[in-house]
TrEMBL record:
The keyword Membrane applies. It comes from Triparma columacea. It is a multi-pass membrane protein. The chain crosses the membrane at residues 27-50, 71-95, 115-138, 159-183. The lineage of its organism: Eukaryota, Sar, Stramenopiles, Ochrophyta, Bolidophyceae. Residues 32-91, 126-183 form the V-ATPase proteolipid subunit C-like domain. The keyword Transport applies. This is V-ATPase proteolipid subunit C-like domain-containing protein. It is found in: Membrane.
């Protein structure tokens, strides 16, 4: 066994990143995409709720009247987590197990189109990642706008509606993300039968 300049003595040292991309199961890629989409959406919602909630509670000490109507900011933050759940359900529905008898315990016999499988796996992964990252950005932006809305409302009640409109635009980022995710996942169909 020979070693290279980095001192690597394994037979696997000279294999590149293409080995990582093609030797992991397409179902694994799809599952990671679903996990990232759902997990990052929840992180975005939690971050936004933390930003909004802390400002709301702090400002409500001096102006208790803002407590109830500013809870709408928390609801907007929570919507980003719901977008992630919806997309996880959609993506999970795409990942169906082959019905053909030549697929046994995760091992494929000859005749399967591996390119279609990997295309579907990478498509689900990218779709989930797009939705998750978009929802992190949406959750943070809604949280910042909601925090500003609570503080501004505590000072001047006429500013509530004006800043709430800005918050709605920030929440639209999550909707755009789920639309892009659905478009990305439309062509991600896992094959369920052998090619003839």
């Amino acid at each position: 066994m020979s070693s290279d300049a980095s001192g690597c003595q394994s037979a696997y040292c000279n294999q590149g990143w293409s080995e990582v991309l093609t030797h992991m199961s397409p179902y694994g890629w799809g599952s990671f995409g679903i996990a990232f989409g759902l997990g990052l959406s929840v992180v975005g919602a939690a971050w936004g709720i933390w930003l909004t909630g802390s400002s709301l509670v702090g400002a409500a000490v001096k102006a208790p009247r803002i407590r109830s109507k500013n809870l709408i900011s928390v609801i907007f933050c929570e919507a980003t987590a719901i977008y992630g759940v919806i997309m996880a359900i959609v993506l999970n529905g795409l990942m169906k197990k082959p019905e053909d008898s030549s697929y046994v315990d995760g091992v494929f016999s000859e005749g399967w189109d591996y390119n279609t499988w990997y295309f579907a796996g990478f498509g689900v992964f990218c779709s989930g990642l797009s939705v998750g990252l978009t929802n992190v950005a949406s959750g943070i932006s809604v949280g910042v706008a909601g925090s500003s809305c609570a503080l501004a409302d505590a000072q001047d009640p006429t500013l509530f509606v004006k800043i709430l409109i800005v918050e709605i635009f920030a929440s639209a980022l999550g909707i755009f993300g789920i639309i892009v995710g659905i478009i990305q996942s439309n062509s991600s169909q896992f094959p369920d039968k052998l090619i003839n």
